[in-house]
Amino acid sequence: MRRLSLYVKLQQLEEITLLRDILLIYGLFAIYYVMSVNVIYFSVLALSFKNIWTVYRRSVFSKFNTLAGSDLVPSVSLLVPAYNEEVTIIENVRCLMTLNYPNYEVIVINDGSSDDTLEVLTTEFNLTKLTNPEMRNSIDCTAVTGVFYNPEFPNLYVIDKGNGGKADSLNAGINLSHYPLISSIDADSLLEKDALIRMARQYMENPEETVAIGGDVRIANGCLIENGQVKDFSLPNKMWPMFQAIEYLKAFLGGRIGWSSINGLIIVSGAFGLFRKDYVIAVGGYRGGYPGEDMNIIIKLHRYMLENKLKYRIAFCPEAVCWTQAPESYRILASQRQRWGRGNLKNMIENYDMAFNPKYKVMGLMTMPYNIIFEALNPYFKITGLIALVGYVMLDMTQWKILLVFGLINFLSGYLFSIGALILEEIAFKRFIKISDLWKMLFYGAAKFFGYSQLGTLWRIQGHIQFLRNNNSWGAMTRQSWKEKSDTAKSA
Amino acid sequence: MFSHVTVAIYFVYVCLGLIGLGIALLFYMKLKHLSTLKKTEYYQRKHQDYFKYLQTQLYEDQELPLPPGKLVPLEKRIIQDKLMEWIEQFKGEVRTRVIELCYKAGFVDDEMEKLDSLYFSRRVEASYRLGMMRATEATPRLLDMLRKQRYSPVTTIIGRAVSKTADQESQLMEMLGYMLKHGKSIHNLAADVLLETRLDSSKILLQLLDHENPDFVKVALVAMWGQAVPEVIPALNRLSVDADEQDVRAEAVKLYLSSNPVLRDDTIKQLMSDSNWEVRAAVAKSLGNMHAAGSIPLLRRAMQDENWWVRNNSAESLAQLGETGFELLCETAQRGSGLERETALFHIEKVMSEGSDHRALDQMVTFNKKRLIYDRYFGVIETSKPVRKVAAVGGDYSA
Q1: A151 versus B128: which is more confidently predicted?
Q2: Which of the four pLDDT bands, split at 50, 70 and 90, describes residue A319?
Q3: Which of A405, A427, A442 sits opposite B5 (nearest CB)?
Q4: A412 and B19 in contact (C-beta within 8 Å)?
Q5: Looking at the domain assignment, is residue A15 inside a domain?
Q6: Which tens digits make up the pLDDT trace of B276-310?
Q7: Does B26 touch chain A (CB under 8 A)?
Q8: Dihedral of the alpha carbons of B70, B76, B79, B85, in degrees to the nearest 10
Q9: Residue A10, domain member (yes or no)
Q10: Residues A473, A255: Cα–Cα separation, whole Å
């Protein structure tokens, strides 16, 4: 009996030793993981700092008044997919129709809305159905039920089609578009008047190699909006949009300026981007069926250009700004982030062959590995890291000091990145004037690591579960009229 | 393990230090910016009367007065900005007077000094400002900067400054050479920069059209869009036929046709069978404008072209070529197939929907004739009942 109990104890001891070894190895791995992610973050941030001066010079020392009236600027088709956007669509279309740009058309694609999106558009602009609209059918899409037009607004077309998703709507828009450049714009977003001309200028600097340009997306909640224009820049008053404002600033200024400088940009935000139509058609247009079509089209463009050994660049134009409504409630924000999680995972699974493949240059050796290891799989490392921490404490393998140092490194390096993004904003744009705005951004930049960041992990995992369950729905999304938003901002 | 923790603690300290520095820098930048904004507002108010007075004197013979009193750098900058704004707005004598005032106030000298600055940003800003003030003597220095500059957005900023300050055509040629030497196809941007010049652009464009460098020719061709320069027509005619580079020829043809020239039948035939779709599309479009009824059979054939623009322009031209052209469209819509049929249907509907709005008698008569043809082919219909659409089969990848 005693021998048996000794044997059991020995067995337990061996198991504990094994567990300790595993935890120790994992601990070392986690340290290198955190170190690697920080090295990548700060390298990208350093690249952003290197390039911010070019952005600044380009934006300050270029006058757009001559270019905005010139025939030398390429013509652009603006594609605006709209699903249940009756509240905001008129103001957005009006905003788009008054851009400082010489030659462009606006194509709104009503994606089988169940509300009155189509009716409000046809009534407002007195549109009538074209009997034989000339769709070029370059890309497959859900059947178009009608194209609406009014010669009094010669640059506005409205396509009505069955519900097929955002990607499908963009494909339908491409089929009708008449110009060599297309720009995708979300129906809940407002473009600054000079946004398109700034982007076109960047395109004109290297038209042969530029296949796509991304714009800077900013949060409009809290801003004063009049006649489809942001009149007064201000930060959101509510907590959820405020966290997102910081997040967008970090991602766009801290991240995308740097990634674009090495041609490693993996996404051009669906809210505002400019594309060469011939290449979008060459890669088969936007992929439907899953969210994340904005990332997917960029990956496909990278793949196509690299496989065909064509010289190219996917650029980012931070001075071309698009203002968007950020979700204000937990439910809608969670749904949006789960959708992004699903889209990201789908794109990574579909294109895993590009990772670590030297044939795909920066994309294969840096962007894809980074996105798979440090973006798609990040939540699992966080969760296992947390479990390991519990293990260290239970097996008495660590001290509170070490835990504190580890936690501090995570928080401080992330916060330092936020500060970096704020400095970039202050160097090149200075959009938020008030001192109180700076305090607010510094506070939320820190506060996001205590709860919001963890929720992000949870939402991403939920998105992955939905992906495995084949849940492809777009999720909940509600719209608020820009006027209402503006009234709220005024009264705040 | 201890050493790892020590390194980690050092890292924490470094992060804390950098965060502290970053926050301090942020507040410094913000406060400085706020203070500049405040002072700018103050100085703008202070010099409001001076600006008003200048405006009243712009058209007088008297010399424009210098800004009053001793000026701090920010005040100088505000006044300079206002004068630069006026230089952009005005032309002729008034602009020259404002430029002279910039010289007299020492703004040009200040910026010339900054061209020697150790800081790249200051040199770029100075070149921008010298360009805005049309400072002729800065051109050689700017050209030197442009020559040494690797290709970036700054190339355009300096190129534009050269174009604004240049007082000799050779300087513009040199500027174009430096902008185009990087091998980027920036002809549209280069043309836009070139057209900023104060010199006679038609003379320069003629020179460019005869240049041995095809890039220069392309810049000239795109620069001429929307400009009526009769002197260049012979050169365009020559390029339309002789140019080796396909895109040069296509641009030349488009431009040449936009001047509504009289074309011989064999020239039309030759151009309509050109291998470049842009040439075919441009010719197809111009045939309608030229009312070249003799080319109806060519247009009919072009409606089967593989390229959308060629088909579309041909149908549009047929619709413009009276009853014969319109009848051919109706025939194609009824007896043709595939993409040519779709194109014909679209243009017939376009004519029918636009036609009912005609107010003038002759237009109404023409429309009614077309309507009779329409009724003959598709039956008499009440108001504007549409022709049934035929769904497209396959895809058209020429768009």
Answers
A1: B128
A2: very high
A3: A405
A4: yes
A5: no
A6: 888 888 888 888 877 777 788 889 999 988 888 89
A7: yes
A8: 160
A9: no
A10: 29
Cα dist. A172→A144, A159, A249 in Å? 8, 8, 32
Residue A13, domain member (yes or no): no
DSSP state of B259: T
Q: How far apart are CA A224 and CA A235, in angstroms?
A: 10
Find residues 169-228 of chain A whose CB sits inside 8 Å of chain B: 175, 177, 201-202, 204-209
- CA-to-CA separations, B162 to A64, A470, B123, B215, in angstroms, rounded: 17, 60, 14, 19
What pLDDT does B66 receive?
Answer: 92
Among the residue ranges A320-324, A331-335, B147-151, B288-292, the one predicted with the least confidence is: B288-292
Q: Is B131 left (phi over 0), alpha (psi -120 to 50) or beta?
A: alpha
Residue type, B138: A
| Residue B336 tokens, joined | 């043709």
Inform me whether the pLDDT recorded for B392 exceeds 50: no
Given a cut of 90, is residue A231 above it in pLDDT? no
Residue B290 has a pLDDT of 79
Instruction: Find the CB nearest A205 among B5, B189, B225.
Output: B189
Q: Which of B285, B349, B278, B329 minimizes the C-alpha distance to B307?
A: B278
Q: Containing H/E element for A145?
A: strand A144-149
Which residues 407-466 of A have a C-beta within 8 angstroms of B? Answer: 408-409, 412-413, 415-416, 419-420, 422-423, 426-427, 430, 433, 435, 438, 442
Contact yes or no for B342 and A132 at CB 8 A = yes
Give the chain A residue nearest B19 (alpha carbons).
A416
The residue count for chain B: 399
**In Å, how far is B142's CA from the nearest CA of chain A?**
15
Shortest Cα distance, chain A CAs vs residue B383, angstroms: 13
- Local structure of A11: helix, strand or coil: helix
The answer, for B156 touching chain A at a CB cutoff of 8 Å, is yes
Query: Which residue segment(s) compose the domain that A256 sits in?
Result: 21-492
Two tokens, residue A424: 């970039």
Hey, of B189, B201, B218, B398, which one would you mutate to test binding to chain A, going by the most A CBs within 10 A of its CB?
B189
Residues of A in contact with B27 (CB under 8 A): 435, 438
The answer to whether position A129 is within a domain reads: yes
- Report the percentage of chain A scoring pLDDT > 70: 95
- Does the CB of A126 have a partner CB in chain B at under 8 Å? no
Q: Domains in chain B, ordered, with CATH?
A: 49-65+72-152 (no CATH), 262-391 (1.25.10.10)
Q: Which amino acid is at A399?
A: Q
Specify the pTM. Answer: 0.87
Contact criterion met (CB < 8 Å) for A442 and B192: no
Q: What is the CATH number of the domain that holds A194?
A: 3.90.550.10
Assess B381–A contact: CB distance below 8 Å, yes or no.
Answer: no
Amino acid A478 reads T
- Indicate the pairing of strand A76-82 with strand A181-185: parallel
Q: Is the pLDDT score of A490 beyond 60?
A: no
Residues of A in contact with B188 (CB under 8 A): 72-74, 204, 207
* Number of separate domains in chain A: 1
Establish if B222 touches chain A: CB-CB under 8 angstroms: yes
Report the C-alpha gap between A97 and A191 in whole angstroms: 10
Rounded-to-integer distance, Cα A452 and Cα B337, Å: 60
